[in-house]
Amino acid sequence: MGDRVILHCDCNSFFASVETALNPAYRGVPMAVCGSQDNRHGIVLAKNELAKAYGIKTADTVYSAKRACPSLVIAKPHYDKYVEYSRRVNAIYREYTDLVEPFGIDESWLDVTASTRLFGSGVEIAERIRERVRNEVGITVSVGVSFNKVFAKLGSDYKKPDAVTVLSRDCFMEKIYPLPVGDLLFVGKKTIEILSRFGIKTIGDLANAPDRLLINKLGKLGEMLIRYSRGEDDSPVMQEPEDAKSVGNGFTFKHDLVSMDEIISGVLFLSEEIGSRLRRKGMLATTVSVALKDEYLKVRQKQMPLKIASDIGKEIAETAISLIESMRSESSSPIRMITVTAHNLISRTRDSEQIDMFSDQRDDIAREKLRRGEEAVDLIRRKYGRGSIVRCASIDNEIGVYDPKTSEE
Fold first, then answer.
1. Any alpha helices (H) in 299-360, and if so which ranges?
2. Based on the domain organization, do 212 and 151 belong to the same domain?
3. CA distances from 83 to 79, 373, 406 (A)
4. What is the secondary structure of 51-69 as a DSSP string?
């Protein structure tokens, strides 16, 4: 059996590219998309290539960015447009394969192994996608083509912007092994520090390091990085599974979460989608579970029954947050991934919701208002698209979610 053909498509300077597509005046000048200068979001969210040339980096303060480039043009973020453009780009991807796995708002993996019979080689498909996104959407993508997901992502990062890079079995060592070890997926700052103590500075150093050393120092993460660096990753491009007994939603964040503010934003985003799917299925959840994966891939799980069976995203989120708070009282390790799942589903009928004999009628009215509000959001999105109304969307380049309460139009 031959190798898989995996693409990783990464929209170049996504926020800045969308703003330039919306306003061509930004073309040809150093520009950065920044949050409000009056609150904690006064940082650089994205920058174009001209701004990068001045050394401006994501998460720089607006003040430091302007100091590095006095002529820098500041653009306000338009999060609903980023969602809309992400949907348009992913719609193009899905014309070539149904095996599409988004990784944040601006990146996706595609398994085009079966598609090569219809559309040509992986490189040919990548070039078609690159050309179509540029012509039809007005932004650019860089595409990595390889035989696994990890190397495909390295390929999309290898040459930017608007490029296709192939990392085949024949050439990956030559191209990848000289790269800094931090370029490898899921190698964060702490892991870099640990590896550097043992002289492991490049991906090649990592691939050639003794297995026992990596496993002793990093545990499961060490086992995973061994496979990743040696081209042995065989993880599939994942479609969202449908399970009649549960509805879950998980997200791997762009950086490890430490503060509860970040965690709550992530949980709200996940739970909102779960509530929408439950309502679409006509089901109610009676139990909520949370799984947390830390920087060393250790997984902790807890679950809790709901007082009243629910399809309301806010109620699911409140239960999930309560579970996470209890878990963090035991360990406050940074969180890499959160999965929220609604279990033990029952059909939503008139008598399916439990009646709490001690409940206040005002509570029942408040719950019904919450449900109707979320149902109204469902209707708007079905009619005009998900980007038409945004509560918490996976679009912030820093952690992977966006909380509109702190945004600006």
1. 313-330
2. no
3. 6, 21, 17
4. HHTTT--TT-BHHHHHHH-
Contacts of 279 by beta carbon, 8 Å cutoff, 6+ apart: 311, 374, 375, 378
| Contact present, 334 and 257 (Cβ < 8 Å) | yes
Q: Of 62, 47, 38, which Cα lies nearest the Cα of 17?
A: 47
**In this structure, what token pair is assigned to residue 35?**
């949050």
| Tally of residues, the chain | 409
Calculate ∠ Cα 374-380-381, nearest 5°.
90
d(CA 226, CA 254): 21
User: Which residues span the domain enclosing 215?
Assistant: 177-229
Residue 48 sits in the same domain as residue 132 = yes
Reported as half-sphere exposure (CB side, CA atoms, 13 A), residue 14 has a value of 24
CATH number at residue 220: 1.10.150.20
Cα(193)–Cα(209) distance, integer angstroms: 15
Buried b / exposed e along 7-45 (16+ C-beta atoms within 10 A): bbbbbbbbbbbbbbeeeeebeeebbbbbbeeeeebebbb
What are the catalytic residues? 107
Q: What is the pLDDT of residues 221-264, one digit of tens each?
A: 899 999 999 999 999 998 755 545 788 888 887 778 888 888 89
DSSP 8-state secondary structure symbol assigned to residue 40:
T
Cis amide prior to 161 (ω within 30 degrees): yes
For the entire predicted model, the pTM comes to: 0.70
Spatial CB neighbours of 392, under 8 Å, sequence gap ≥ 6:
265, 268, 269, 272, 401, 402, 403, 404
- Report the C-alpha gap between 271 and 15 in whole angstroms: 25
CA 264 – CA 256 distance, rounded (Å): 14
Number of domains in the chain: 3
- Do 159 and 251 have their domain in common? no
Q: Which amino acid is residue 45, in one-letter code? A: L
pLDDT, tens digit (0-9, with 9 covering 90-100), for 362-403: 555 677 777 777 777 766 655 555 544 554 444 444 455 544
